[in-house]
């Protein structure tokens, strides 16, 4: 299940980046927005994370439902991807505890173009000697098409370093 989560997160980043208009420029895929008022990586605060061209997708393939939010920070290769491995049907608080049985989680990537580099990708499903990844995704509004909510997380990379975000919010149309 963890392999499915990793593949879903990275595929989402690449899918939303690759969408183009006829003129060869990025297209507004869903009009979704993702913000984290504060976030940090490797022990340093990084300020505010803002994505004005994020994507939100809900799908079922081979009997497995997933709800995915993918946000590439404006003007950078940084990416936050949340994957919930069940169908969202209304407002819901999803506890993304370390090593949760469902396999849902959030990944922060310093560079989404390098999905296999464990040092650039921080996951809530990882832990180190002092910290276990985790967080929460809170869907506050859902009408089957439009969704809004909040999030926070602590994630750990392959070297045991941490990334975090707090006071996160998202809103947009599900595609």
Low-confidence stretches: 1-29
Question: What fraction of residues sit in β-strands?
Answer: over 45%
- Kindly state the number of beta strands: 10
Order of helices and strands: HEEEEEEEEEE
Q: With helices defined by DSSP (H or I, 4 residues minimum), what is the helix count?
A: 1
> Terminal Cα separation, in Å?
23 Å
Q: Measured on Cα atoms, how large is the radius of gyration?
A: 15 Å
Outline = globular
Helix content: under 10%
| SS-derived structural category | mainly beta
Strand order of the largest sheet: 5-8-9-10-1-2-3-4-6-7
Calculate the mean pLDDT score and round it: 86
Structure commentary:
The structure is a single chain. The chain is 10% helix and 50% strand. The chain has 175 residues and is mainly β. It is globular and about 40 Å long.
Salient structural properties:
10% helix, 10 strands, mainly beta, 50% strand, disordered N terminus, 1 helix
């Amino acid at each position: 299940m963890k392999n499915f989560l990793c593949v879903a997160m990275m595929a989402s980043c690449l899918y939303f980046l690759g969408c183009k208009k006829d003129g060869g420029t990025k297209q507004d895929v869903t009009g979704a927005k993702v913000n984290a008022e504060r976030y940090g990586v490797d022990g340093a605060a990084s300020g505010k994370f803002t994505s004005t061209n994020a994507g939100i997708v809900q799908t079922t393939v081979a009997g497995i439902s997933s709800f995915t939010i993918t946000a590439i920070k404006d003007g950078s290769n940084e990416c936050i991807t949340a994957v919930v491995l069940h169908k969202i049907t209304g407002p819901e608080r999803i506890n993304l505890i370390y090593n949760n049985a469902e396999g849902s989680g959030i990944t922060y990537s310093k560079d989404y173009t390098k999905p296999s580099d464990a040092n650039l990708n921080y996951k809530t499903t990882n832990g180190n000697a002092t910290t276990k990844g985790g967080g929460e995704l809170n869907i506050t509004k859902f009408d089957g098409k439009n969704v809004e909510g909040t999030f926070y997380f602590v994630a750990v990379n392959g070297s045991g370093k941490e990334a975090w975000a707090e006071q996160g919010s998202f809103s947009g149309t599900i595609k």
